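Form 12-C: Joint structure prediction
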Amino acid sequence: MQEKAEIRSKYWLAVFLVAAYTIPFGVGIYTDNVFFDLQWLADLTTVILNGIMQGGVYAMFAVGLTLIFGVMRIINVAHGELVMLGAYLTWMFFFYVGVDPLLALFITLPIAFCIGLLIQKLLLNAVVGGPELTPLLITFGLGLTIIHIVEAIFTTDYRTIPYAPDAFQLTETIAVSRSKIISFVMAAFISISVFVFLKLHRLGKAIRATAQNADVAMVCGINIFHIYMITSGLAAALAVAGGALVSIQFGFNPETGVLYTLQAFAIIVLGGRGHYIGALIGGVMLAVIESLISFMIPNGTAMVEIASYGMMVFVLLIRPRGLMGPKEN
Amino acid sequence: MAEAEIALDIQNLKKYFGGIKAVDGCTFQVPKGQISGLIGPNGSGKTTTFNLLTGVLEADSGDVFYNGENIVGLRPYEIFNRGISRTFQITRIYREMTVFENMLSASSMKIPVREARERAEQLMEFVTLTKLRGEYGGNLSYGQQKLLEFARALMTDPDLILLDEPAAGVNRTLLNNLLEHIHHLQEDQGKTVLIVEHDMNVIMNHCEKVFVLDYGVKIAEGLPEDIQKNEDVIEAYFGHR
Amino acid sequence: MGQKEHLRNFGMLAILIIILCALPSNINLYLRSVIMFTMMYVVLSLSWNIISGYTGYVSFGHVMFYGIGAYATGILVVDYGWHWIPTLFVGVFVSFVVSLIIGFPVLRLKGPYFAIAMLGAAEGTRVVATVWEDLTHGGEGIGLPNVENSFETYFAMLVVMLATIVVSYWVGHSRFGIRLNAIREDEIAAESLGINTTFYKLFAFALSAIFPAAAGGIQAYKVLYIDPETEFFILVTIYMKLFAMFGGKGTVIGPILGTFILYIVQEITWVKFPTAHLIAFGVFIVLVARFMPRGLMGFAIDKGWARKGMVH
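Section 2 - Result
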C-alpha cells in the first residue's frame, strides 16, 4: 500500500523522462536534422554508444558526490573543481614527466585522497550536521579558490592530451573512439571496486553504517570523523580519476569545473541523492540525453548545459527522491 | 451531561505512511467551549491527527468540519486564519528572532501595528516573558520556549487552540501556571481547547472530555473517570492481562 | 518607542545623500565611477539580502536579474533607439515577470537545492543570451553609443540606491520582514501560524529581483559594451553574496557596510593582483562562512553595540 503522492510522483517522473528523450527527436524533425535513412540511424547508434561510454565517466565522479552527500548530508560544490584539478594533474604528469595518463592514476589518486582528507579535516568536519548552507558556502569558496589558483598557474587556455584518438570500427558505419572505450572500462572498473569495497570491506561497512545513522555508528565505537575524512578522500579520488578520464577525451580549462559540478549534481538528483547505483544509472542517462541533444538540436552544445539544469530542477520538483533515493522525511 | 455544541467535527480521517496506518478512520467531535484531551499510547497517531487537523499533513481521505466548513485540503495558514491555532510537541519557536518578534510574527496583518504590539505586550505579560522580550528565542530555557509558543498561538485570539503535549519538559510551577492560563481562556473567554498529553494528571484533572486513540482509531471517549475504568483503554495501554 | 531611532537613521541617510550629491562635481572621473560602482554593489547586496538574508533562501544566481536589466537597456537603446531612462523601467518589469515565472517553481526547493537551482537558472539565462542572436546579438555583445554620461549614471544609480535602501529599511523594520524571518527560521511553523509562505517568498523574491535590473541597466549605459559573459558573470553574484555576508545578512546596515569596506578593498587590489585577488576572495568566502556566518553585525550584537532583532 503506497501513498497517493508517491505513486503520482513516480508517474510524473516517468512522463518527464520520456519527454526528455523524445524532445530532441521532435526538435530534430522540426529543424530537418532527422532523416531516418540507414546512414542517419548508424550515426544515431554511434551517438548513443558514445553517450553511454561518456556516462560511465560522469557516473564515476557523480558517485563521489553522492558518497559525501549520503554520509554527511553535505553538497560539495567544489567537486567539479576537483575533477578539473584531476585533469590538470594528469596533464602535468603527461607533459612534464611523460607518464601515461592511465599510469598517472597511481600517483594522482593518493594525492587526491590526501587533498580530500585535508579539506574534510580543516574545513568540513566542524560543520557537519549544522545549518545546511554553511558547507555549501564553504565548498563554493573553496571551488573559487581552486579555479583561480589553477588559472594563475596554467592560464585560461584550453589544454588537451592526445591519447588514443583513433576510432574503433564496430561495424562499417558505427565507430566509437578508443579513448572513450578505455575511459569507460576504467570508470566501470573503479566504480565497481569502490562498490565492492563499500559492500564487503570492514571500513566500507563502517562508512555505510555512518551514512545510515551517524549517532548509532558513534555509539557502536566508530570514529565518525575518521569515516568522514576517509569518505571525503575517497570522493576526491573518484573526482580526480574522473578528471583523468575526462582529460584524455576533451579539452579543459579552469572554468570547466563548474559544468562538472552541475552535471554531477543533476546526476545524483536524478539517481537519488545518496544512492550509489542510482548515481551510476543517472550518469549514463544524463550523458545519453546530452548526446542526443547535441546530435539533433542546432546550437546543441550550448543547450547541453541547460539539459543538466533542467533535469535537476524538474526532478527536484516532481520527485525529490529521484529514481531510487531514500524517502524524504 | 448535556449535548454541547460541536466545535470540530472529525469524520473518518485517514493517513497512511507507506504501509503504516498512522490514522485509520478516526471519527470524533470536539465540544465547543470545553477543554478536551486526546490520549493514547506511543505511536497511536495523536500528533499525526493534530498535523492533519492543522493542514501540516494532507489527509488521504476523510473530512473535518469547522463552523460548518470542510477544512481538509486547506493550507495550514488558511486554517490558522479561520481561528485554529496550535503549539508543537517539540517547540518550534523562531530561534534567531527575539521573543517580541516571535510574538509579532503571528499577528494578523489585518490589524494595525499598534494594536498588534499592544497585544504582544499583554500576552508576554500574561506568560511572564516581558523581561526577556529582546532576547533571542533560541536562548530561552525549554520551559520558557513552551510558554512563548503558547503565547504566540494566542496572538490572533483564536477560537480553537490545539496544544501538543504542553506539559512535556515543563517544571511543576510553570505547568500549573500554564494550566491556569488554559482554564482562564476556557472559562472567561469561552475558547475551545484540545490537548494531546502523556501526563495523566493533567488529562484527568483538567479535561472535561477525553478521546482515546490506538493504532489510529478512536477506541473510547467520555468523562475522564469513565475512561480510567474502560477495559479497552486499559488493554491498549498495558496489553492483555 | 522607536520613533527616535527612525529619525536618527533617516538623519544619517540624509547626510549620506548630501555628501553623495556634493561629491561628483568635485572629484575626477575615475573616483566618480568607483563611487558609482560602490553604490551599484550596495543595490545588489541589499537586494540579495532581501531573499537570502531575511527569507533564508540563499540565491547563487542573482546575477541573472542584473544581466536582464543590462540587456533590456542595451537592446532598446541600440536596436530601437529609446532614450536610456525608460529602458530601466522595462528592465525592471521584465525582471519582475521573470522572477515570478522562475520563483514559483524554484522557491518550492529548500536550502541548498534552491541555491543550486538558481545557479543553474543564471547559467541558463546566460546560454539563452548567447544563443538567441536575433534579440541579443549573441556572443559578440552589444556596443552602446558613446556619450558623456558619468554624471547621469551617477545620479541615476544614487536614486536606485536610495530606493533600495528605503525598501530594505521598510522590510527590516516591519511585520513583513518579521514574517520573512519566520520563514527563514522554520517554514512549517510559519505556515501553521498564519503566514502564506508561497506568497511571501514570491513577494520577497520579486522585490529582490527588480533593483538589480535597474542597476544592471544603468551599468550597461555606463560601460558602453555588454556581452553574455560579463553581464551574467558568476563573480557578480559572488560579490553581492560576500559583501552582504561580510557585513551581516538579515540587517539593513550590514550589506551597506560590507560593500563599502570590501568593494574599496577589491578596487585597490584587483589592479595590482588581478588573479591573486580572486584567490583571496575565494579564501575569504570560506573564512567568512566558517568563522563569522553572522558577519560584522553579528559581531556588533555580541559586543552589545547593536540590539538583537529588527523590531523593538
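Section 3 - Comments
The first helix of chain B runs from residue 46 to 53. The beta strands of chain B are 6-17, 20-31, 35-39, 61-66, 69-70, 84-86, 160-164, 192-196, 209-214, 217-222.
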